[in-house]
Amino acid sequence: MRKTTFILPVIVVAAIAALSSIFIVDEREKALVLQFGRVVSVKEEPGLGFKIPLIQEVVRYDDRILSRDIDPLEVTPLDDRRLVVDAFARYRIIDVEQFRQAVGVGGIAFAEDRLDSILRAQTREILGSVASNDILSTDRAALMLRIRNGAVSQTSTLGVEIVDVRLKRTDLPRQNLEATFARMRAEREREAADERARGNEAAQRVRAQADRTQVEIVSEARREAEIIRGEADAKRNAIFATAFGADPEFFEFYRSLNAYRVALRGENSTMVLSPDSEFFNYLRSDTGVEPAPAQ
After folding, report:
1. Contact 127, 143 (CB under 8 A)
2. Phi, psi at residue 194, to the nearest 5°?
3. Angle at which helices 96-103 and 107-127 pack, to 10 degrees?
4. pLDDT in tens, 179-195
5. First to last CA, the chain
6. Under 8 Å between Cβ of 65 and 164
7. How far apart are CA 291 and CA 122, in angstroms?
8. How does pLDDT run across 12-50, given as a tens digit for each residue?
9. What pTM was estimated for this model as a whole?
10. What is the H or E stretch that residue 30 is in?
11. Which of 129, 151, 171 is a domain's end point?
């Protein structure tokens, strides 16, 4: 009984010691075994690992691609047009031992602070070397690659690899928005005024050409009308002359009838003529000859 009482605590202590000497590394992480703050073992593959209880400790780091949002920063491109840039980066720990030596007990938080300072400096340097139109255009993909490549060389001492850098938003500072909008409105109004002026000029040319064409067409029509009227008058006079030569008496009768039709219309209320006027020859005689006076 006394022997069992002594052995049982020993077994319990041994079991606890055995369990505390075993650790499990997940496939999403890497582990370091530290002894008094010094790295004695690196466990990068998933599975079981061993350490000395109470003397050694295990520090785990994420092996996945991590994301880090960079606080919005203000940059000044070559054209002095200030912009507020919002970016983020993706990175991963590629050398956990070097990472531990670089950041110490600060861990991920200390490393991300270092990444922020490096990425902000690179962003200001790269975007400050180009014009704002290049940042706002499709060329920004090349600029992001330049920022990433510049940051890679500086973060290699941390045991970290920068996978990608992206510019999420590029805006004007709030205090410059109104001035920029006013300048844009003025530019659009100037372009609209130019378009209206060109349109009015084109309209004036069209109207002038139309007026000229109208005058030419009317003049040509009048000329042709006068020619046709003259030819018609000539034919009419020729017909009258032929008729007069063929039968002068009938021609005189025809002319008298036309004179009666024109003179004796309904609107003529009064006509004063001498009774012996030649106008009434065909009214007094069917031959148009003045009858002889009675003997």
Report:
1. yes
2. -65, -40
3. 90
4. 667 778 888 999 999 99
5. 201
6. no
7. 132
8. 656 666 566 777 788 888 888 888 877 777 887 877 777
9. 0.52
10. strand 29-35
11. 171
Close Cβ partners of 41 (under 8 Å, ≥ 6 residues apart): 32, 33, 49, 51
Residue 188 contacts by C-beta under 8 Å, 6 or more apart in sequence? none
Number of neighbouring beta carbons within 10 Å of residue 113: 13
Q: Is 210 helix (H, G, I), strand (E, B) or coil?
A: helix
Alpha helices in the chain (DSSP H): 2-20, 96-103, 107-127, 132-136, 140-155, 174-246, 248-263, 281-284
Helix axes 140-155, 107-127, angle to 10 degrees: 140
Which residues span the domain enclosing 198? 180-224
DSSP result, 80-142: ---EEEEEEEEEEES-HHHHHHHHGGGHHHHHHHHHHHHHHHHHHHHHTTS-HHHHHSTTHHH
Q: Rounded to whole angstroms, what are the CA distances from 144 to 29, 55, 73, 126?
A: 28, 46, 15, 9
Residue 293 inside a domain? The answer is: no
Average pLDDT over residues 81-99: 85
Q: Does residue 49 fall inside a structural domain? A: yes
How many angstroms separate the CA atoms of 155 and 164, rounded? Answer: 13
Which residue do the tokens 């006079």 mark? 237
The answer to whether residue 6 is domain-embedded is yes
Residues paired with 91 in a beta bridge: 66, 162
Give me the residue label for tokens 């659009």: 188
Number of domains in the chain: 4
Q: Report CA 34 to chain centroid distance, whole Å.
A: 59
Give per-residue pLDDT as tens, 141-151.
888 888 888 88
Residue 8 is predicted with a pLDDT of 64
List the beta bridge partners of residue 29.
62
Q: Which residue has the tokens 């499709």?
A: 138
pLDDT grade for 294, boundaries at 50, 70 and 90: very low
- Give the end of a domain, one of 224, 253, 285: 224
